Amino acid sequence: MSGRKDFLGQPAPENYVAGLGRGATGFTTRSDLGPAREGPSEEQIKEALAKRAAQLGTAAPTAYGAPEKKDDDDDDERFQDPENEVGLFASGTFDRDDDEADRIYQEVDEKMDKRRRARREAREEAEREEYERNNPKIQQQFADLKRALGSVTDEDWASIPEVGDLTGKNKRTKQNLRQRFYAIPDSVIAGARDAGQFDTSISTNGEETNGTNGINGASGANGADGVDGTMTNFADLGAARDKVLQVRLDQAAQGSNTESVSGTATNIDAKGYLTSLSKSELKAGEIPVGDVKRVRSLLESVIKTNPKHGPGWIAAARLEEFAGRTVAARNVIARGTENCPKSEDVWLESIRLNDNHNAKIIAANALKNNDRSTRLWIEAMKLENNPQAKKRVLRLAIDAVPQSVAIWKEAVNLEEDPNDAKLMLAKATEIIPLSVELWLALARLETPESAQAVLNKARKAVPTSHEIWVAAARLQEQMGAANMVGRVMERGVKALARESAMLKREEWINEAERCEDEGAVLTCVAIIKETLGWGLEEDDERKGVWKEDAKSSIGRGKYETARAIYAYSLRVFVQSRSLWLAAADLERNHGTRQALWDVLEKGTNACPNSEVLWMQLVKEKWQAGDMDAARHTLGTAFSRNPKNEDIWLAAVKLEADHGQTNQARTLLEQARLESGTSRVWVKSVAFERAWGTPDDALDLVNQGLQLYPSAPKLWMLKGQIYEALSKLPQAREAYNTGTRACPKSVPLWLLTARIEERQGASVRARSVLERARLAVPKQEELWLESVRLERRAGNLAAANTMMAQALQEAPTSGRLWAEKIMHLEARTQRKPRVLEAIKKVDKDPFLFVTAARLFWAERKLDKADTWFGKAIVEDADLGDTWAWYVKFLQEHGTAEKRVEAVSKCVMSEPKHGEVWQSVNKDPKNAGKGIEDILKICVGLVK
Length: 942
Fold this sequence. Notes:
InterPro entries: HAT, PRP1_N, Syf1-like, TPR-like_helical_dom_sf
Number of helices: 48
Protein name: Putative Pre-mRNA-splicing factor prp1
Structural class: mainly alpha
Distance between the termini: 64 Å
Helix content: 55-70%
CATH superfamily of the domain at 284-414: Tetratricopeptide repeat domain
Number of strands: 2
Shape: extended
Strand content: under 5%
CATH class of the domain at 284-414: Mainly Alpha
Coiled coil: 101-148
Radius of gyration: 48 Å
CATH topology of the domain at 284-414: Serine Threonine Protein Phosphatase 5, Tetratricopeptide repeat
CATH architecture of the domain at 284-414: Alpha Horseshoe
Organism: Viridothelium virens
Largest sheet: 2 strands, antiparallel
GO biological process, one term: spliceosomal tri-snRNP complex assembly
């Protein structure tokens, strides 16, 4: 119980007087023991009384309960009526002098008021105007709009839709907002599920009971009885939970291409969505009759309100057609043609709804009312079945609408004789000289020589048309005058610039791509050459813009346009290595080998100090089997870059891969003398180690460490050589010395810890890893090795503790999450952990592989394949991912998919991965290709 006293048992506050709010005062008597206590002061009493009165909403009373009277109380009844004289003036008498005095005073007041009235009214008017200007009324704000309503026509007034009654809708909306939703308990769901199921059970008292599961229902293996008699099916709940997790993983797979993988992301394929909509056609029987009637009443209101509104009649007719009432639809649209005789849309709808014979009559009536409607003439022509009748209709149409390009085109298309078509097009160009389309059609029908004359006439008639200049360039290409194509486009660009009719750079690129599609490659190149720099200043990011243009063209499959863009860009930026590499990638993926060689040779001449271009050229010739050309290229590269270690090492690899060990050793000696970098020494040691000369390798590594004592790879090679010779103490000493010389090298720390563990000193290995984590904090590989050390020692509790610390240090490490999920979690908890990890780690290939392995284990092969594909797309340089994927395909894939996966792996040339690097760096596998390394890794991943 609390030690606090109750309210009545607590002491009174200081200066407390009972009944003070009711006007009581404190007092003391002589009979009181102790010194008398003074009562509250007058100010305290007034303050308490005022506070009490404020709470009650009355006037503040005095200490004796009577309210105070104010002398200037305006509410006194004596001052309400000036004719009611009471009090002092009750017995007063008034005479003429008093009336005269009152009159004089009144006149004086009126005169003084008249003198100040003008200024007062002027001041009040100014104040009123200022207030109205700052706070305008609603009618003033819309005054200009109300004046504009005077110009609204009767048709516009009639087309204003009726205002619907939204009161019911708003009421329903508010009711829905006030609704409350509660989670339904499992017991209610289970009761609803079992409501229609009857069974026979024996109660505890031996009576047989028919009905649903109740209090007497027996508990089974799937659940236990609840208080309300329901039985929880834990198997169903587990299956539902797995299904929910699977759906969330699928959503994460779909949403991984968005900004974040939250597990609830949703991707909508706009193209597929529209396609699905087009496939789901509504039928009249699927629409409720009430909806049809309601829409019919609305449309009837529209056409009655505004009978001159053509779209209303069309909508009403289509509604009847949709409802299956074709005759009613024809009648409605017939009324529409009577009310809207000048609306070609209404006539076209009427023609569509009627059969051919009636449609011809309707078309004739339509043309009587709309003799200049191109669409009606063309529709009337289509109704004819005889070509001669079609031509007759089109001749009438040309007489009625001679300026219609569409009618002339239809008439030309009906001509079977090219000469007649040319004559008609010649006449059309005379009547419509501004139609570029007709000029180009005429040029296509003429011979090349005559086509030039036609295009010259067209150019003079329409000097702002770029299509005519492009057609002229294509004509020159067709005639075989390749040197004239560029000249024509150059003249065309200058002429269009004079006329201020130049297109934007993006539009010119689209024109070039269109020419490429139609086979005019030279015209495509000429367009790019003359227009790619249009609108770009020299200080703009032209190189980046052009690279993006080329990538966009490649994405659309327009490789010739991309080549032309790269060619123009390289003429401007000759020494841009990135542009040369991009052009080489284009030729490698979409060109010929000779074209690739030409691009790389030009790139090496333009950028002689770029070892990347030299290496690519050597590699291409090497892979083509031309060893002499590869050696010659390396010799040229040596002469241009005598100190470049990449070229030296490429030459060494070339000779070593073809068995020329002595030549490779000689090249390494020369490289150590001329270049002499730590990387050259590392490659020299690795070469001797790979070819089985450990003594020479030890000698070289000791020489290299004297020159580069802080090179971690040299210390690692020294320790690995001793390990290969089974000299573990010397290897351990090499590793320890290396960690002191290179305390930031994570691989050195890992090798040191592993050799201690291999010698059975797990405690020392643990100490090494602790020192490593202090030297290199927040390094996921060190934490991962610490967790694996505890797991290999059988200490799972310590491994879990270490993993918790690791995830606090590196919460976005996919490798740590994958280790935790696959080795430290129960099988039933792996899927939830994968989902949690995907939410925290964005696009990690290790997690994708983990998800794929979980689906693989559950025999959900399609989903596993999808996740493997996502992992490869995310990081194709990770060799372990390729190994897992190929292993999966070996068990559940087809031979074609396995071959495709291996070929893609060879093309990607992966270089990273825990298992991949251990196999690739092993001296036993020296000289093996990527495919051989992949086969070994497939057998090691687990």
